[in-house]
């Protein structure tokens, strides 16, 4: 209910815009907020995806990103993959899978666990998603 109020207040485009902030802490907080919205169900997930979150989110996966920030990004990717009724659109999956392929080799246990969960959710969505 509260999440929907945030969405209705037009916060998603503002959070998306904050992903381009030159201040990393602002980007990380925007990632966290969007992850919470995405995690509220497939309708909100799809709305945030349609707002352009995936390419902006995936650019944070790089060697310079602090570990805690990368954990947050990986958690949001899990939320992007989570719901299967309906599952994420195939175009979104095609963007996410290469990122998961890179994250699956990470040394951090938290990132590995979330990456495996994301892969599990995607493969549980049916043969079309695989």
Could you give the topology of this structure?
Blueprint lengths: L1 H7 L2 H8 L5 H15 L3 H9 L2 H6 L8 H16 L7 H14 L5 H15 L7
Structural class: mainly alpha
End-to-end separation: 33 Å
What's the quaternary structure here?
Answer: single chain
How many β-strand stretches?
0
Main beta sheet: strand number and arrangement?
Answer: none
Proportion of β residues? under 5%
Task: Sum up the overall morphology in one term.
Answer: globular
Please write the string of helix (H) and strand (E) elements. Answer: HHHHHHHH
Number of helices: 8
3D structure, described in words:
By secondary structure, the protein is mainly α. The chain is built from eight helices and no strands. Helix 6 (67-82) packs parallel to helix 8 (109-123). 34% of the residues are buried. The mean pLDDT is 93.
What labels would you give this structure?
130 residues, mainly alpha, globular, 0% strand
Could you write a compact summary of the structure shown?
The protein is an all-alpha fold and 130 residues long.
